[in-house]
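cron nightly-structures :: item 1 of 1
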Amino acid sequence: MAAKTPKTSMYKWEGKSRQGAPMSGQMAGQDVALVKAQLRKQGINPTKVRKQGIELFSAGKKIKPMDIAIFTRQMATMMKSGVPLLQSFDIIAEGVDNPNMRKLVDTVKQDVAGGNSFASSLRKHPQYFDDLYCNLVDSGEQSGALETLLDRVATYKEKTEALKAKIKKAMNYPLAVIGVAVIVSAILLIKVVPQFQEVFSSFGAELPAFTLFVIGISEFLQADGWIVVVAGVAAAFIFKHVHKTSEKFRDGVDRMLLKAPVVGDIIYKSSVARFGRTLATTFSAGVPLVDALDSVAGATGNVVFRNAVMKVKSDVSSGMQLNFSMRSTGVFPSMALQMTAIGEESGALDEMLDKVATHYEAEVDNAVDGLTALMEPLIMSVLGVLVGGLIIAMYLPIFQLGAVV
C-alpha cells in the first residue's frame, strides 16, 4: 500500500530580498516550515508565513465547466512541456483563485500520488468529469500519449463551452427584454398611475375605457401585487424542479425549443455542431465508432438528436454506413451528411466531422449576432408600446376635457 502524500495548501508570505527590499506573495506547500525553506532557497528571508484562509465570498463559489476546460488546457500545456504530472497539479493549484477548484485539483493529486491512475482519480468526481472526459484520459494513459489526448480534450471542452455560452446569450436576450419591460411597467403602474388617479377623481366625469382598464391594473398591483410576485417565483421553482426530475417533461421542452422561431434554428445548429465535435474528438482518440456514439448521444443536448444518435448506433452496429444511417433519421442537415460520406470514403472521418463542427459553430455565432441585432430595435419597440400606452391612457381624459372646454 502506497504511503499517503501530505496535503498541499496555499500560504501567504512576507519577507525581504537579499538587498533588503520588502516582498510578498503566495506559495503552495505542505506546511509553514517547508514554505520558509523554499523561500530561503530563492534568496528570500521570510518574516511572516501564514496559511491562506478561505475568503467569505469565494468559499461557496461553484466550479463551472469553464474552470474544468481551463484546468484541462493547463494540464495539456504542462504535460507537453515535460512537467511531471504531480508537479503540474501543484503549479495549477497555486494559480487557481476559486478555493473549491483548488481543493478539487489537490484531491485529484492526492489520489494520483497514492497510486491511482489519472482517469480513475477523475472518475471519483463525476459531477465535474463526465464519462467522455474520463474515457479519453484513460485512452491517453493506456497508449502513452496522455499529453496528446489532454490537448484534444481541452480543445473539445473549450469549443463546447464557447458554444454553450452563445446559446445562453441567445436565450437570455429575450428574457432580458421581457424582464425590463415588466419592471418598467410595474413602476409606472404602482408609482405613476396613482398620481394621475388622484387628479382624475376631481374631474367628476366618466373616464375612457382604456384609462379605467389601466387604473384597474394599477389598483390590483397595489393591493395584491405580492400575489403576482409569489406566483411568478413559485412557477419558476416548479418548472425548475419538474425539469430536473421528469425526463418526459425535459424531452417535451427540448422538442418545443427546437420548433421555436429563431431560437429553434440556433439550438438545431448547435446540436449538429456538438455531434460533429464530440464524434470527431472520440473517433480521433481511437475510440470505436459504436462506443463513441454513446458519448455523442448525451453530448448533443437535445432529445431529438439523442434519439437519432441512438438509432444511428443501432444501424452502425448492424453494418450500415454512418452517413446512410444519419440520412435515415431525417434529422441531420445535408451538409453534415455529405461531409460524413466524404470522410468515410477518404478515411478521414474525424477531419470531416471536425469541419462540420467548425462550420455549424460559426453558423451559431452568426445567428446569435443576428438575433442580438434584431432584439435591439425590438426592445425599443416593446418598451415604447408599453410606456407609450400607459402615458396615452393617463393623458386621454385630459385631452377629452380640453376638447369639451
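cron nightly-structures :: done
The chain has 15 helices and three strands.
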